Recover the amino acids of this structure.
């Protein structure tokens, strides 16, 4: 049986710039930073990074209370992004066979705030009677995808990808396979994440966070920059509608791009350190599945967390394959690292750049670090026809992911 073609027909975002794809792109176009000093975080002893890129919650009460009770912040973000993505795709669920519509949404963990609140409520008395019945559904690792499926009444495949910062790309890769194998017709795929001091703290104790810019939040993170000092956590959700190509054409849907290649590899060497060689293998496998040579890629949306080693390894991997021919940028300088949501939010931004023929620069990249040279960094807005995108995503556990989208 020949594999089906998979296309993207809808996109939705909740980002630190606000609800909606338009707000995300407006923030990028205006060259703004969503990073700010987090009031109250200094109460956490030992927490060195006091900056983050939060989302201002809005419109959550449009979700019926009965559905909302089992949602933490990340699930609310995912439900709102899913609503926008479906509307953008022109899909009305009442007209669909819901056994053929599902969702695959990734995150690093369950709702961080809900997990923290659960233990603060239960301890130190170990009194389980203080917990309410919905807390578990906010804390479980597949909370975002389950809550979106329940909110929308989906009956198809419901899966969760949990691969830290590669979660959203894994979700998209899983969705790509489900549709091209004919198991589903339509999938809502992407990621969701929420901020909490314990989330930033998990990176902080590994010396992976930005700590030098607490007084000047807008100056960090600094991907690929000489003065980068670590990542800044963000939150939000990105959801994309993946659909069988023939079905999309039959209903005259607007198609953003076709997903033509995906790969994921592990380095098997270190639980927290990136590795250039395994990144190269992952990217080469993705290109091979897409049937492309390196010359066939027009734009690379980098992972680029602004960590010292991570940026260096990724820059070296890109240089190994592409040299300095392909423009490279990322949006973490604007909105921070949205972790499990990053691959989806950043891919959506890249798809809009493809649509506009305009690549936005890497915010806060002022002086390219010597160890990140040798690739074509975008440091000013760049007008360019984009017919193909490579999206990178790398994660703790030595996990690499890459995805190729091509304009039809």
């Amino acid at each position: 049986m020949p594999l089906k073609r998979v296309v993207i027909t809808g996109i939705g975002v909740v980002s630190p710039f606000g609800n909606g794809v338009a707000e995300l792109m407006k923030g990028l176009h205006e060259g703004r930073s969503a990073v700010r000093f987090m009031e109250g975080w200094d109460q956490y002893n030992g927490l060195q990074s006091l900056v983050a890129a939060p989302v201002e919650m809005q419109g959550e009460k449009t979700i019926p209370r009965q559905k909302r009770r089992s949602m933490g912040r990340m699930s609310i973000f995912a439900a709102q992004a899913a609503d926008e993505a479906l509307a953008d795709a022109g899909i009305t669920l009442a007209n669909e066979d819901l056994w053929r519509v599902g969702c695959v949404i990734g995150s690093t963990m369950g709702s961080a705030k809900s997990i923290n609140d659960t233990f603060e409520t239960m301890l130190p008395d170990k009194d389980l009677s203080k917990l309410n019945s919905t807390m578990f559904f906010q804390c479980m690792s597949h909370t975002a995808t389950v809550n979106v499926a329940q909110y929308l009444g989906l009956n198809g495949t419901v899966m969760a990808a949990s691969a830290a910062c590669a979660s959203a790309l894994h979700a998209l890769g899983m969705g790509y396979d489900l549709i091209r194998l004919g198991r589903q017709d339509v999938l809502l795929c992407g990621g969701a994440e929420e901020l909490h001091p314990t989330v930033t703290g998990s990176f902080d104790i590994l010396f992976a966070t930005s700590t030098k810019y607490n007084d000047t939040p807008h100056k960090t993170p600094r991907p690929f920059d000489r003065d980068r000092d670590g990542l800044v956590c963000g939150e939000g959700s990105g959801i994309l509608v993946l659909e069988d190509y023939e079905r999309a054409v039959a209903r005259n849907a607007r198609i953003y791009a076709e997903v033509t290649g995906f790969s994921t590899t592990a380095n098997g060497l270190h639980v927290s350190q990136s590795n250039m060689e395994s990144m190269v293998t992952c990217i080469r496998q993705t290109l091979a599945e897409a049937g492309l040579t390196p010359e066939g890629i027009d734009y690379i949306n980098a992972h680029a967390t602004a960590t010292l080693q991570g940026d260096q390894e990724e820059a070296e991997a890109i240089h190994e394959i592409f040299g300095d021919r392909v423009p490279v940028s990322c949006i973490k300088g604007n909105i921070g690292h949205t972790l499990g949501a990053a691959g989806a939010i950043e891919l959506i931004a890249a798809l809009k750049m493809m649509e506009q023929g305009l690549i936005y620069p890497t915010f806060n990249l002022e002086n390219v670090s010597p160890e990140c040279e040798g690739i074509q960094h975008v440091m000013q807005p760049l007008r360019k026809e984009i017919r193909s995108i490579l999206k990178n995503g790398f994660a703790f556990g030595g996990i690499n992911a890459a995805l190729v989208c091509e304009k039809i």
Remarks:
- The chain has two domains: 6-250, 260-406.
- The chain has a mean pLDDT of 96.
